[in-house]
Design goal:
Largest sheet: none
Number of strands: 0
Distance between the termini: 45 Å
Strand content: under 5%
Helix content: over 70%
Order of helices and strands: HHHHHHHHHH
Radius of gyration: 18 Å
Shape: globular
Number of domains: 2
Length: 175
């Protein structure tokens, strides 16, 4: 039951983000749209930012099947395509709240892509100066920030160009 309610809350949030500026979306409005009360919302989420991160994760993993791709490039293309197709939501967030919340919502998905699809090769792994965790964090922050700027600049760079550049960097670092 818990998962079903969380999904309803995520879907309601995303629908409201398409219609209203973020500051106009209240927990009461989200709960009402789902037919639950505010307390039910707080049973599942700490705050609206927690819901936002879960909503992105739900959309990308379950609706867009982001991780069904066989390659890192395929996963990243699905992620970027989703962002571009949902530019209304992304722009709403960028316009109305601090960008760190969008960054926090994106970070775990990008991190998971790096952990699942790219592992440092034997040379990097045995290099005592470079640690696997640092490399993943560094790359995740860099890719996340680049995508944030792409969104802030109205998604002008092509998805293929971006994923190609990301892939080139990853290949140079990990092969």
């Amino acid at each position: 039951m818990k998962q079903k309610t969380e999904i309803l809350l995520c879907k309601a949030f995303m629908e409201l983000m398409k219609k209203y500026p973020f500051p106009k979306i209240t927990i009461q409005k989200i709960a009402s749209q789902c037919g639950v009360n505010r307390q039910t919302f707080y049973y599942h989420f700490d705050n609206i930012y927690d819901l936002m991160a879960s909503s992105f994760e739900y959309e990308l993993i379950y609706e867009c099947h982001m991780y069904d791709e066989d390659s890192w490039e395929g996963v990243m293309k699905r992620f970027l395509k989703w962002m571009k197709e949902n530019r209304v939501i992304i722009k709403n967030i960028l316009t109305n709240i601090e960008s760190r919340y969008l960054r926090q919502a994106m970070y775990p998905m990008i991190r998971r892509c790096l952990e699942d699809k790219y592992r440092p090769n034997i040379i990097i792994r045995h290099d005592s100066d470079i640690d696997d965790e640092f490399m993943h964090r560094f790359l995740t922050y860099g890719i996340t920030q680049y995508i944030m700027e792409w969104a802030e600049n109205d998604f002008k760079e092509s998805i293929n160009s971006m994923t190609g550049q990301f892939l080139l960097v990853l290949k140079k670092l990990y092969s």
